[in-house]
Amino acid sequence: MQIVDGKGEWKKRELVGFGIEGKVLGIIGYGRIGREVARQALANGMKVIVYEKDPKARRENSLPVVFVDKLEELLSKSDIITIHVPLTDETRVMIGKRELNMVKEGAYLINTARGGVDKEALLKALENGGLAGVALDVFYHQPPLTDNSSGELARNEKVIASPHSIAQTKEALRRKGESALKIIKEYLGKA
Fold it and tell me: I need a labelling partner for 151 at 20 to 30 A (CA). Which of 9, 22, 44, 59 fits?
């Protein structure tokens, strides 16, 4: 959404925010990133529920989050749902039409994980008003405009789309370069 329209007029009244304090954040996947998201959400006054199949995540957890055994419970109780799972055959399309129909009306979905959501079902959930909005950092086809339904998602007014750019900071790029240099030095040292 643009904050200035084509006539150069400021569009303040059209932009209404969504406070997160007291809201329920549902985290799917509780690895390193999921735990960090939980920590930050808790610091901002959110309640956090987690769906994670690995029992080790529960044993090693030190944060005041609530674990649920069923994905359906997380979907129906969360104001915001965020996905943090690796791409596997099991997670490729873990959120489809059935799951989106269980989502609390007016909820928001954030997907920064590879795959995870059926894009056609997601478009329908946005059209029928079940989802208030979606934020996507990954698409099945990148750039998304090369694929019809991914392009529709990227252009949808209820979607915030970013080009999978989490590691595009000066600091992250420097760390990647340093890591690559270390690997090369180690390899050459062994040759």
Answer: 9
Beta bridge partner(s), residue 110: 82, 135
Strands 131-136 and 24-28, by their bridges, are unpaired
3-state secondary structure at position 178: helix
Domain boundaries, the chain: 24-190
Q: Could you give the CA distance from residue 120 to residue 116 in angstroms, rounded to a whole number?
A: 12
Q: Is there a contact between 18 and 79 (Cβ–Cβ < 8 Å)?
A: no
pLDDT tens by residue, 167-181? 678 898 899 899 999
DSSP percent split of the chain into helix, strand, coil, nearest 5 = 35, 20, 45
The 10s digit of each residue's pLDDT in 92-140 is 778 889 999 999 999 999 988 876 788 888 889 998 878 999 988 776 6
Output 9 or 26, whichever has higher pLDDT.
26
By C-alpha distance, which of 116, 25, 36, 100 is closest to 66?
25
Neighbours of 182 (CB within 10 A): 10
The encoded tokens of residue 157 equal 């007014």
What is residue 186's three-state secondary structure?
helix
Fold of 24-190: Rossmann fold (3.40.50)
